[in-house]
Amino acid sequence: MRLKISHRTEYQYDAPLSYALQRLRLFPKSDPAQDVVEWALSIEGAREEVRYDDSFGNDTRLLSIDGTPHTIAIAASGVVETKDTSGVSGRHTGLAPLWLFCQETPLTAPGPGVAALVETVRGDEAVERLHALMGLVREGVSYVTGATSAVTTAEEALAQGQGVCQDHAHIFLSAARSMGFPARYVSGYLRLDDIDEQTASHAWAEAHVEGVGWIGFDCSNGISPDERYVRVATGRDYRDAMPVMGIRLGQAEEQLAVQISVEQ
């Protein structure tokens, strides 16, 4: 499937900024499941200072403000050719060792809720157990926009039974690691049926299975990623893979607007 993607993030301030830094992970890479045909970035109110691949292999850009802007706008767009690999994204690569993805983080630390969830997972084979886990997470945590925030932990989302794709991914990561699987967070895009315009990017989880490699699990939709998905960044949790992250100094009030379009 050939997907055309546009992702614009705009920050508006009621006073000029004197200092701000932004870190971008908005550049997908070609892999066994996707081929990046073209991709471009445009920036208003800031300038690119440096680019590098982080320890997880993500294309990362650092921006600083240019002058004293009232607006910072970041627009990424391009075309990606995808194919259905039944969720398998390939062997492990990059500088981060597999054991790093077995370690908990503040957002994915397991507690009583995750422990109880793991106890209910059934299946003889590794992939069968992971699919069963995906189903349990989807059944136990309803998709409700606004029910959680960027700092909600896996345990908190599981306890309240509501969340979004970020929470589903964190719960899956916490449980999969408790079951002995290296697991990582994936941020990217999803082509929705009959819907081009979106207000947020998508997220899912991947678990590493010996002899197979990384396999994706989208608990929000109850499937392994297919040709409608585009992978952009990975990490131990949301903070490692979030598309835009920044800091700023000053008292200016901020308004954020995000516009995403994913078209076939």
UniProtKB/TrEMBL annotation:
SUPFAM superfamilies, alphabetized: Cysteine proteinases
Protein name from the UniProt record: Transglutaminase family protein
Lineage top rank: taxon: Bacteria
Domain Transglutaminase-like: 157-221
Residues spanning the membrane: none
PANTHER family linked to this entry: BLR5614 PROTEIN-RELATED, SLL1049 PROTEIN
